[in-house]
């Protein structure tokens, strides 16, 4: 039995769908399982058991993990993430879970310049201490996060960044779900640490040019300082302060540590990752 912790999130939902496509059943946890079930397509729902659980309630986690052999651990980035994921690890140990797939991040180090990545490091440390076999997936920036800026880009024709000409890796969250499904269903892949990127890294000027071509009108890059970008994301994109800080930090990481595409996804799945061009084409109406 595979348990999905964070099933209502983007990565957890993508993994549910990927597992269902492989014909593999799973158990999805949610504080509101009826709402989760209603959000699933028929094919995924047929392969998914929805179970009530709350990451803040260790007893509910232990009840939900009974009989589980594997756990996908993917919680939404935020101030409570470390506490919630540690609760899940403790419950997994108590229930005899044998394998955890942890959705982590690049630069998950104790002195990482990205606060969320420092949190992922703390969770990984708890996993290592637990003795459970662990597989770590390290996806770069989700293409889907670009949609958070779509209203502002549509209104202004500007894509703000503090990256200058540095390139950023983007990965479609559906590819993260496919990679997670592979390591959950192929025992020979368990125990590794796998970076996940798309097939090409893009600078923000290149991203603006690509989006402008799809829209048929000019889109320009707006170069900002890190502090000015933070203020812009809070005031114009409506991001909470911690999320705006996270965006700035990962952009500055791309400046400090040049990013390039990695072929790990293809080695895991046997196919090429989804492209940014295809993703933007699929969602171009959000930017009009």
From TrEMBL:
<feature type="domain" description="NmrA-like">
    <location>
        <begin position="2"/>
        <end position="249"/>
    </location>
</feature>
<dbReference type="InterPro" id="IPR008030">
    <property type="entry name" value="NmrA-like"/>
</dbReference>
<dbReference type="InterPro" id="IPR036291">
    <property type="entry name" value="NAD(P)-bd_dom_sf"/>
</dbReference>
<dbReference type="Pfam" id="PF05368">
    <property type="entry name" value="NmrA"/>
</dbReference>
<protein>
    <submittedName>
        <fullName>NmrA family NAD(P)-binding protein</fullName>
    </submittedName>
</protein>
<dbReference type="InterPro" id="IPR051604">
    <property type="entry name" value="Ergot_Alk_Oxidoreductase"/>
</dbReference>
């Amino acid at each position: 039995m595979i348990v999905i912790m964070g099933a209502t999130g983007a990565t957890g939902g993508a993994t549910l769908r990927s597992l269902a496509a492989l014909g593999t059943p799973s158990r999805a946890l949610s504080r509101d399982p009826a709402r989760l079930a209603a959000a699933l397509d028929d094919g995924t729902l047929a392969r998914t058991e929805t179970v009530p659980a709350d990451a803040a309630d260790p007893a509910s986690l232990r009840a939900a993990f009974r009989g589980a052999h594997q756990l996908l651990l993917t919680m939404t980035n935020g101030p409570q993430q470390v506490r919630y994921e540690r609760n899940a690890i403790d419950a997994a140990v108590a229930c005899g879970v044998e394998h955890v797939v942890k959705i982590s991040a690049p630069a998950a180090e104790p002195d990482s310049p990205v606060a969320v990545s420092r949190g992922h490091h703390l969770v990984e440390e708890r996993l290592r201490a637990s003795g459970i076999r662990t597989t770590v997936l390290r996806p770069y920036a989700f293409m889907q996060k670009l949609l958070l800026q779509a209203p502002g880009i549509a209104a202004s024709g500007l894509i703000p960044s503090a990256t200058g000409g540095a390139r950023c890796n983007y990965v479609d969250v559906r590819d993260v779900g496919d990679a997670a499904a592979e390591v959950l269903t192929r025992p020979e892949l368990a125990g590794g640490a796998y970076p996940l990127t798309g097939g090409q890294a893009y600078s923000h000027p290149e991203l603006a040019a690509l989006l402008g071509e799809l829209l048929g009108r000019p889109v320009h890059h707006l170069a900002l300082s890190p502090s000015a970008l933070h203020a812009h994301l809070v005031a114009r994109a409506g991001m909470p302060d911690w999320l705006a800080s996270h965006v700035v930090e990962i952009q500055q990481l791309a400046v400090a540590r040049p990013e390039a595409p990695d072929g790990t996804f293809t080695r895991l799945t046997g196919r090429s990752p989804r492209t940014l061009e295809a993703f933007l084409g699929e969602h171009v109406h959000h930017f009009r």
